[in-house]
User: Fold these one by one.
Assistant:
Number 1:
Amino acid sequence: MNLLGNVLSYQHFPIYAIMVLFMGSFLIAAFGENRRVRNILALLSITASLIFSLLLINPVILRGEIIGYWMGARSIAGGYAIGIALEVDALSLFFALLAACAIFVSGVYSIQYMSRDDNEKEYYTLYLLLCGGVMGMVLSGDLFNMFIMVEILTFAAVALTAFRNTARGAVEAAFKYLVVGCMGSTFILVGTAMLYAQTHTLNLAQLAQLVPGNMNTATKAAFALLFVGFGTKAFIVPFHPLAADAHGAAPASVSVIISGVLTKSGIYGIIRITYFLFQSMGLGTMQFLLVFIGSVSMFVCVTMALAQHDFKRLLAFHSISQIGYVLTAVGLCTALGLSAGLYHAINHTLFKGLLFLAAGAVLHETGTTDLNKLGGLARKMPHTTVLFLIGALSISGVPPFNGFASKWLIYQATYQKAVESGNIGFLLVTVIALITSVLTLASFVKVSHSVFFGQLPPELEKVKEVSWGMRFAMGIFALLCIVTGLFPNLVTTYLTEPAAAAAFSVQRYIEAMGFDGSAAVEILAGSFRYAGVWEPVSWLLVLCIALLAVTIAALAGRYDNVSLCRTAAGDSKYQLFYGGEEQSFSQLGGDDMFWGFKHNWRGYFSFMHRLHSGIVNDYALWAVADLALVMLFSLIVL
Amino acid sequence: MTVILEALRYLGYVLVFPGFLFCFLAGMLLCGIDRKLVAKMQKRVGPPILQPFYDFFKLCGKETIVPAAAERISFMLAPLLGLAALVVIQLFIPVFSFTAFYGMADIIVILYLLLIPAISIIMGGAASGSPYAGVGLSREMVTIISCELPLVLVLLAVAKTVGSAMGTGLCFSLSDIAEYQEINGSLITRISMLPAAAAMLLVIPGETGSHPFDTAEAETEICEGLLAEYSGAALGVFKLSHAVKMLTLSSLFAALFLGGLGTGILVLDALLLFLLCAGITAVSISLVHAVTARLKIEQIFKFYWTVVSLPALLSLVLAWYGL
Amino acid sequence: MFKKLIEESTGRSPWLFHINAGSCNGCDIELVSVLTPRYDAERLGFKLAGSPRHADIVVVTGPVTKQSLPRVLRTISQVPEPRCIVTMGSCPQSGNVFRGSYSVAGPLSKYVPVDVDVAGCAPKPEAVIDGLALAAKILKEKRGRMK
């Protein structure tokens, strides 16, 4: 009985949450020949992982504990951490929850989405490895273990990118991802080794205790290596072209994990090293680095997305654009900024997951994601259309969906930072963020017109709605999008503010593992008040009343009394007006939209076109150049 | 009992003032005044002031045809959603010292709420399946992008001016902006706000899609673009929305720059607001309409991101340095 | 009362859609001149619409050539009820000087009921306005007959 109680103590839950995913992966590899066994094993492990993460909310977020967990009951010897440790504070758990939710929904979706592919056994093995890697990385309390997990997830992600290797570009995308991803992993490894040489420890808490007082050229170089290494995992500029290739080629359920979770683990790594290990976020220059990269990512990627004509590549660029928002907000280093950034991280996982699943649904039914070949699917796939629209409006920051709630906080945070620091540069960031939002809307108007509205191409006449399982998975994301949009106060109070507070309490993080944290540089988070007001629930209520009033008035005026085409073959009255000609298929291609905008920016677009050559050597060069610049920067300012 | 009375009061706000009835009457009258003024400027007699009402009621009596290629539900729902969203925005804009729904939305929210009517017309047009609507929606979206930058700069400039004067650094709340102007006089009297006000006057015709910036609905080249397939009552609702949008944007201008003129008596204030809106419309929509020819879409973009954005930026920089 | 309001409004807000059925362009120019400041048909509520879906009155000019006939009929069928058809100039009425040509399928009244004919080559703007005003009156009556 005592043993059982011990085994079920919440102290063990973090390792369980990681372990069940790896166990599931190995079991499927061993016994996954049977389809039913395989599905049950996969569902069991993702559900168990989700439950263990949810159970941790009570102690870690509500009671504010930090779980320090030594594997195999090893602990500190001779003042140095020898064993492998997990350390779970509100920040880790925040990212773990995000991962667990996305993994769960995408796993449910996979079951029917992947049913037409071969090698499903390998798919689930790799999928669960990827998930386990992400989970392990965010819960780890040890820098080297973070590296191991990053390796696992990178290789699983590369293999999954090339999973549909008969599809055009899949192997090429995987190769690019492999080359640059491995460079990133190597940077992390070298950075870890350099830190180990300086401090003789790999434990995050002990590193956080020792590194800030021990700044020399080697640790500064290690910072640059780690920063760029985690940057490749988050695909921030200049690594964004990889994301586009990888997401475009991978199955949609994997894209959800790569874009919604893997990029977040990169952001998590960046938060850990800047806020914790080096405690350098108090420096204005360090804030500049993060905000600069974030703003450039958000703007460059949204313009790149406008120029795409493949549904999934477009979503991939938007992913990085939204990650740019997160990084910018995190880089502000204020309580409001960090909370806003983490809020946007949740929202990005939800709406981008939804959009990728919708893209997957379109691919599943029509066999293509080319915007120039699709159209008019709203009449064939009404539910998918509604779900897609929820996702599209969320990402474009249209009230009352969740994207608006977090972007609203980000605008305030950047503007407030500008006012507080007196630096007009942050004001520019606010303007960029606002403009990026409307450009996002533009590219989703393009997608909704080219895929779901407009005219149905004759070859898509036989398309049907996707199966209930896939709609259910999308429905979960859509519901969460609406809930997190309507109750921003709940999300900030119970999720993002505790996580943000954890990022500002380095001392507690160090002391939870039994080290001396008195020397930690505490950044004062500062208090904040909102400069504006936004009450989504009351607003929605007013909108509903207004809509009801309009509808009643319209119905009273017999608005619904419309002339519909009753006959099967085209009565000319119900044909579209073609200047008098007979109706024929004519759909404005995705490429041709927003000409007036693209024309004015043709110099910029052709420059970008030349820059993104698609050659992996160039991208490797970018990685090295980025490393050199960041290293120079950190040697000067740290 | 008091709860019911409160609910009735708010329902009154939604339905009568500053909600539907006011929007309907004032918006349509504004539209009529605009048409009359343009006619006078072109030395014509012009239609009667009540012409928009005739147009609306006529459209209500016409047959509504839904094309066979259209997605029926979105096609018919889009006009209603657009109108409802516009009326809701009107509820949040203070009428001098009076705000119907206090503390629910700020200027950033208004900026994004203004997108909803545009999205609904885009969705409606896209759902019709017409190729003219495809071209129209592409142009409409570019017009929105064009207007966004100057509008953002104007709003940030106002937020900064009011915020630093109130000691909070920045202020996004419209009712606080109204309150500030009650005490300190209209913002337009400050030199730093003059360029922003001028920019805002040029943003209004772009946002409403009126004459020189109406490429999205150009009737002579792309057959009314997004509205090409709309007929009858659905078209009537879109025409009404267009009129209400003129009212909304001009009263937003009044709230941002001409606050503090109110008398405290609601009826007089409403009348005053309407007169101000008519004045703003006369300058920003009618005058510009009468003296210009339609621009091309890439010219619109260039115009807004340079000629209109620069004064707005100037205003923001002046406000930043506390002038 | 509502019905009365609609009926009254219908007569005061007729929107025009102009179809050129092979016209020599003379009538087209005259139609545009009706909307200029000198004649200003807008004071009666007339407006040129860009799409047949918005129109109340269809103005047809030209002798209705064989090429244009199906297009004219299709466009007219796309105009929502109540609608009026006005022929402008002598061509759509009688074929005028093109009568008997191998390529002319007119007059228009062979294919659709025409409400008002404005004769002349080209008709004076005053005559056009008069014809359109008559069409507006017919439009109002048609609306009154609708349920």
Number 2:
Amino acid sequence: MSNMKYLILRRISQISLLVLYFGANAFGWKVLTGTMSSSSVFETIPLSDPFAVLQMFAAGAILAFDAILGAIIIVLFYGIIGGRSFCSWVCPVNMVTDAANWLRRKLYIDKIERKVWISRNIRYYMIVLALIVSFVSGMAAFEIISPITILNRGAIFGFGAGAGLLVAIFLFDLFVLKNGWCGHICPLGGVHSIIGKYSLIRVKHNSDNCTLCMKCKEVCPEVQVLDMIGKRSEFVVKQECTNCGRCVDVCNDDALSFNIRNYLKK
Amino acid sequence: MENTTKKPQISERRKFFTNIAHNAGLGLMGGLLWAGYADKAKGSALTLRPPGALKEEDFLSACIKCGLCAEACTNRPSNISKETGKPRPGTLKIAKAQDDVTIGTPFFIANDVPCYMCEDIPCVPVCPTGALDMASLTNKNNELDFRLMDMGIAVVDPNSCIAFWGIQCDACYRACPLMDEAIKLEYDRNERTGKHAFLKPIVVMDVCTGCGLCEKACVTDKPAIFIQPRDIALGDPGEHYVKGWDIKDEQRAIDQEIGDVTTKTERSKKGAADYLNEGVDFE
């Protein structure tokens, strides 16, 4: 099971967050209340989704300080430490799309499908579009369609018809495009990519140990970030890396590991 | 015959412009669909919002859809069932995709679970964005005051209210948390029998908070008293009419006169016979 260490840790992280949120509503726990749009830790520390806050500004809202402080805390945490780890360690939709990806490998869908190509930069255009639509419609545009909040709220307050969107994303990732949602379209992923660009925790590649088995590229949800595999010993610096650690898990040659980026030493 | 369909060669310049057009077109398409949906997603004007909610338009832009208010409502100490020791369903619900309310925003259905008007108003201080505005519920002594809540207003349908028929019922009157203030009973002579009285529930509009306890308590199959958002239920006389017998309202007219003299027409200097027949050709 050693090749599933980070995968298991991630699932524990994702599920326990949902359990804490669920308990906050069902049993009145105070550890983590709210949803991922905006939470409160022990009823004192506010946390909010910086993208939601940004959209609300675009929509013309005058926000109370708690929401803004919450967004700043999140930006600082992921910006300095976590990188894009929200996507793989926190976001519940990751479990849905990972499931689709797993099934895709089991069913050999990659081997038979017609290639559909969509730019991985769509997510950044989606950010711009979300802000424009927020401005025009006067409400946070992504928040009304976001499968992340639908799944998050569903786990807390019960699922409604919005669950259909989650099934749609699962099917999209399974049959239309590999890593379609998380790796191409989701604007929140784009926002977290940008936030986490200079984070300290990164995967480091040691090409001396690499045997070019390419298992890492098979499992990586953002393959383009692994362009140095077998070529150069360096950090995975591209911002789209979610720090999910799947590549570290599957590498049998000790060529990939989590490390702390040192900006002082050049 | 040889198939000669060959891809036409296009210049880098043409490619550049086509790419721009392509991307702009896709963006426009997505934007239109998205904005169209956003417009639809605004939900029904009949939605009842939690206490202290900003007016609907501002509320929709300021609500981050975190659900903290609903959680605070469900888990308020006063909501623990004495029998089971567990919280009962809260008043505030979080809208799902099938509800006619913007997804993720809090609302309540008075006839399902009304607002119990907690003294400490637990749902409002937890709001991180100010979509539920503490200031609107804070009184002169700087305390949260449930009397300042304004979620809607109770409306009576006198045709189906049995008290208006002459049957004695004061269910709504007694259920009201502001008893004899928000709903008063109007005593009226029952002409039909000649010896009975009507006890008609009358909503005092300035006092009613729209909590919905009356709607919940109403004994008729479909409640004859029900909560509507004030925007829907109330009219607006505008600026034009003045209550001359009300000093405050009269002052409004006096203030107005200083800048606006059109309410007084200068008396004509001509005789009545002249100015009434002005411009009339008698030939």
Number 3:
Amino acid sequence: MSHYEVKAGPEAFLPPAAATMGNVLPDPGEAHIGGKIVPEEEAYEYAARKILGAKVPTIFPGPLVLWKWNDHVAAKATAIRELANEVPMRLIPMADYRPKYPKIDAAVEINPNHPNLTIWHNKIDVCIFIGVHCHQANLALKMIRASTSCYTMAMCAMAGHEDACLSFRDADLEKIQRLTAAVKKLKAEGVEVQANSFTQFQMDRSGFVVEPVN
Amino acid sequence: MNKQVELKGKRIIASKHVKLGQKNRKGQTYTDINDIFYKAEQTPNFLTGSEVIKEAIRRASVGTSVAYPITPQSEAAALIGELYAEDYLDEYFRGESEFAVMGQCAGSSFGGHRVFTTTAGPGTLRAMENFPMWAGSRLPIQVCVTCRGINSPLSIQPDTLEMHYLLETGMLVWHAETAQDLYDFILKGFIVAEQPDVHVPIAVCCDGFFVTHTKDTVNLSPEDLCLTPYNPYESPVTCMDMEIAPYRMMRDPFVMKSNYINYSTHASWQQEIKAAVERSRKHTIVLLNGLIDEENSDREILIVTSGTAVSQSREAIRLLEEEGIKVGLVKIKTIRPFPYEEIKRATKHAKHIFVPEFNVAGWMAREIKSTIRDNERVYCGPHVAGGMTMPSEVIVEEVKTHLGIKTAQNSR
């Protein structure tokens, strides 16, 4: 059965939505890698290898995990931080979905209306979307595939994303922790982290507490 | 396609709503759609299509219904008013026009309610600007379109031309053949449209008058079971205020800041709506038992159509069979998403494909022609329009004439 392979770009001026090419989302217990449906278990190790092999692996946490809507979200946010620290990965938030004018600060934020600017600026080669509303995640994933070479992954709390190169579905706290565990396991087996060193920025309302250092 | 959607034994993913199993203020139990249709006993009732709409909404846990009652085309909006009086709905009010109604539906849906309305004919076209707005805003509103003529002079009889206008709005468009379909499609339509990966509006269409005003036997699920409520927390977009998309986009759209990136965002947004419609296939196939129904589709002569044209075709097929002419039937249930693969497969062996339609444009035949190989096999007709009936004898005549079989009519 032939299928449309969802690969890192740059793919086209306007690549198609993978769903319109016939790609179906995984069912519970499944994930997809490049559009191919696989058992979820298989995707953890694949994702962990991608993360460990990247120069600038980055997590894009969205509003669903950036604010403490409930205790489960707080626990998820802690688990995301643990994943970021374990690799280590940069954390660049997609705090909201407004178009940023006059100019986005691509070093510290990403926006679904021009996500490629953040990818280009930071030379991000592997990223994970977590806690981004599905509509905005799909917009961003298609645009990243259009014009960047970044490999995209989605830890989606709903049904998953065909427009990511790899996607989990129903991603709750346990699944984030299982991805962290997969990273730990590979590291214990001798897989070396390829990430460039960096300093994770920290901000408060007055500006930088710790500036980003690449 | 990366994975075949299996039908056998499959059910749509069960509801995990927090109210599942609880009772509402009318004593109805919030029940998973699979249990409503596949476990509960269905009881036959003799009802008009309009009454069927009322009975579906009684069981649909609708929050808001906005009405612009356009009797005599359909009494549905007025009947839903009775449900409101009986306390089945939270909100029900009348808009100033169909355009206003659809805007009010949007507001109610943005606010987190399950929303239902009805329209028909000129009303559908008057409301038209709102339909792509609903889709672009990912609002899973359901509108029941009881199709009638759209042009002057007035017609209250069925004419499916308005469905043609709905095809590229970004809505799901389903076409009921019978009152039974109408009941099933309304309840199942909410569930498919509200899936987080779909989450676009749905137009459940039926041929007005024929379906809405005639009585038929319809199997209804128990009155004390109702759908689990809409869960706005599963929306793929944020709840709305003036600073957050999509509303911010309406006030301050990215296309006004003209550059490549902004147009690209808008294009990606449009693609996402089309993608959402595509994603509905998986859920619809299991709930509607496929996007098409087939009867003897391996025959060389096929009729492929939707709505009440299917019913008329069934009788035509019986008449043709009496004369030794064997004809198969393909009933199309969903127009958006269009069952491209299913129709390609079902028409593979056909040498002659007839597409009877209740409209002057022949849009369904064009859809089919653009889908299959060797599309000269498709015969666009017969057509009736403006509220005419389509006697089965007309279909028989058309089939025989096309096949070169002499009839009293074509040999005059």
Number 4:
Amino acid sequence: MEAQVPTLAIVGHPNAGKSSVVATLTENDRIAIDKRAGTTTRSDEYPVEIDGKAVMRFVDTPGFQNPTDILEWFQQHADEIDLPRAFLNAHTDDRLYSHDCALMRPLADGAGIILVVDGSKRIKEKDRTEMELLRLTGRPRMAILNNLTSNAKHMAAWQDALNKSFNSVREFNAHRATYAERIALLNALKTIDQRWEPMLHETVRAFERDWQRRIDHSVDSILDLLRKALTFKVVKIVKVNELGSDRERESIRQRLNESLQDGLRTLETEAQTEIRTHFKHHVWNVAPDSLLVKDLFSDEVERHLGLNRHQTVLASAAAGAATGGAIDLGVGGLSFGAGTLIGAGVGGVLGVLGTSQLAKLDIQRTLGVERFTLGPVSNPRFPFVLLDRSILYCARAMNWAHGRQAADESAPNRVPDQAPKKQRGFTEALDGEDHKVLAKFFAAARKGKHSPQEQRVREILGSILHDLSTDKIDSRASL
Amino acid sequence: MLSLLRRLAPNRHSARDGKSGHLRWQVPDLIDFDYYVDEDERLLREHPAERRRLAERDRTIYKDRIEPFIGDADAHTRQHRNQALRWWLERRRAQEEPEIAELLPGQAFERAQRLVATAMGLVGLAIGIGAASTLLHYDGDHPVNVSWYLFWLVLFQLILVGTTIGLWYGRRSKLIKGATQDISFLGQVLRPLFSRAARWVQKQRLTHVRPDLRERAKAKRGLMQANYALYGPASYLPVLVPAQVFGIGFNIGVIFMTMALIWFADLGFGWGSAMNIRAETIQGLIRVIALPWSWLLGEGVGLPTLDQIAGTRISLKDPLYVLDAGHLRSWRWFLVLSVLTYGLLPRIALLGLSALKQRRALAALPFTHQSAQAPYARMITPSLETKIIRNGEGPEMPIPAPLKPLSKPTAAPRPPKTDARVEPNLETRSEPRSEPRPEPRPEPRPEPKSEPSDEPRTTTTSAPSAAPHTRSETTPAAPSHPPLAPEPQQSPPAPPSAASKPKPEPKPEPKSTPKPESRPEPLPRPGPSETSNGPSTQPPSAHAALERASATPESEAPPVDRVTVDADACVLLLHIDVADLLAEQDHARLQQLLRSQTGWRVAAAVTYGGGRAMADQTVELISNAIWSAPPARIALIQDGSQPPITENLRFLRSVRAAAGEQAQVLLALIGDPDDDEDDPLPPLSDFDFADWQRKIEQMGDPYLRLVMLAPPDDDDEAA
């Protein structure tokens, strides 16, 4: 039984990116990846378990240290039936071959081969030697062209060379591979050994279901965030006699505003942590110019995410005047020129929200005490901005390869993240009907009510996330 | 009565059907289910990190204890979902401690339901008795008027039953829906009653719980009601059952009281009308009413005869004694049978119908609502995990030890100014095996004269111009080595290798020796003819490379057996990857670069890196070269964009062994050539260079110098 578990040894010469490939394939960013050569010194195993039962196994191996000798030894012992085993037996005590033996061991045990080559570099003599010796092992084998740079000049030559000795050759950027690419790679593994097909089929299905589950969980997290954010308010009670002037009142208002924003930021961070956990990320860094690093209430975020003015008005109107902000915004739209003039004079205290404020301040006076309540957020655009940010975050989490930890982000020729097109928010791209559904959901959430739209909202978000992971929707990598 | 109730509201232990694996949903189950789902949701809200644990728990429950019963084939169907969740509930309950399990809301609800039903039955009984005794009140002056009895206890009840059935079947029409909701006595009165009773039951139970469990048990309270909206009829049917029980109790009370009065008192029954109704009309009516039982208990027993009917007509003017006593009594069984048939039996039928409906409704629950999706998804989604099995730290990349002869004293004495050309390598490299070689060596020594002629050949055109002025800068570098050489070197190379020496030695030797010997004479120089027939293992490209690489040396070096190397020249070892890419004109640049690094000209060039045979040839060449101004000078040029591997280091060791301990060996690295740049000798990235540096340092070879052939900036030229 154990023997039938498809086992794949990831081989290649040192620094070809084997560990990155394993990390990405198994979504494990705890695999130590060191850019220095020869970091992997032992064959660590990475079983994929479904319900505790191993269905396939990857073995990360050290790089070839003596490929020429191995090849020559293979050629001299061509009559051996099991070359890897014979080689292992002959060299097991030789210190100089310790890495080669560690590499050969899984092959001797019947593992298939995934050769990882660095497609950005020219084919070298050593590469040819390795291809040839792997061909001689007679094991099912696939080659991965791991091109971490934008240099694609050698790719065709690699394809040709690899095609001669390998059952399957695939391009796979261990630092950029998306979910869809990982699944495609796993599917391709079926072709290199037919006996593995059922097991791999099951594995791929499990991966797909697992992915769907993560999407569902992320949708849960996002909805939860929206619900919390839309009911969040800050309260401050001040004795009337302590309130000297309107200036103090204004400063209270300022402070409340700050703590409202802080509270919302915290909520967002919590949700992001949750989402990151769903996608099994421990190590992770967002590009410094990403919108995700920017403050939730900054101008850029407001400009790029959420609905445009027109859409907001339509959607909020559909949700009923409950939001109140719809009217503000409607007026703001009509008196646009004047609004901007005034806005410029006052200075954008609430940059995110344009002409309309984030939340309404409510002051209640009772028994010598004034009770200042700011919130919940009444701005009709805010939930869309927040939702867009969350989706953007999911997109980043979904498409952030686990092997990327070692990526040299500063390398001049690394694969650029997708070229920036005209970038809009995710929700802006939805149709009006969906906007209305969302707006209604937000309106209900504001009142803390269960909305009949929730199911539909769930579907909308689920399909956005699903399309993101299958590259049907652009992930706005430049945002 | 109680046993009947138990059967109608079966508890979960009897819920199992005959065929194993099938569990039925009961209303208490729904309540418990909602309770558990709610508990999980709350947990997740408060601790999102628990998601994983919950998923594991539910998946384990499903895999171990549900799937074996219900299978996995029809997952996602209504039936499967229904059963999987029912079993899930069963397993969840089983995980509770028995004492706490008793306190689950569903359990409490079940008990409360029984309690309420019993109470309703008793109340019904009492009211029935009261009603019957009121209606049968007999003062002795006038016979009891059966019309009232029949109207209230038969017709009215029939109307109620009819209404109930009518409402039930018409419940989907809007009109009735609105009406029933408003006047819903069931919902308004019974539901709070249930909740209150259930809470009371829980409270009673709680006092019996062990103190240590009490706190936990308290958490199980609350949430007494299932989410009615989600479960539709299944949720309000349980309220219907006690209503029927009430009706049954009432009718039983009536019958009981009627019988009792008939039994213990002499009742006279009669009928009257102010209108001119004939006894025959009444008889017709009576016959219709008595249809259900008249076949068994005919006229005179089950229903009064025409005479008896006519004889019990009450008229105000007649006193009671005018009427015949037998006639007056003749109605009694008719009344009892009427209540039995039209009061009790329909209620029993309704009770059965309610139970049936409830059962059907429960069995048909789809469980597709949001909160039920979560546990189902957790159960049927296989857990997918990628683990790491660490096999511990392995040995670092092996660094080959220096080859044996190195530390021999013979190697050391060479450098001092013996102006005659020596082959430093002779003894070092081959002393055990290549004895034949040393002999021929002496003769070529007088060859120094060929030196000047060598120069133009190797450096082709650019050499003359480049050589003079570069040499001035780099000469210091070259001389700097000899001074170091004499004393210290003997020990340094040894220590790093000392530990590992015994092992590696046997290996490289057998490998490197047999081949050169078998070959005719690889020694002279890297002529293309020899190399091409030698290493049969080389891929075609290697041959081509060789030819190209050797093009330069060929033109210059005469077909002598040995290369003669001048004092300012070196042997160039060109890696096949580099040689592959060099065009004719690039050689000039290569030599220029080399000269700027070392001040050496190239006396001879040879390619390596294409297999053992090639390596041996190279070593042979070095061994046999005739060096003016020893120690030997060797420059290796290699692509450094791939990190060093043992194989590279071993080759360096064998070069060292061949060239002698103090031979100046220069390893110059180039980067991966970029076609666009048109530069086959690009600089290497600092990162890659550092990688090489580390490994070369580990070799502990003080006479091995590592440089970038073409440094990116002129300043870094460290070794």
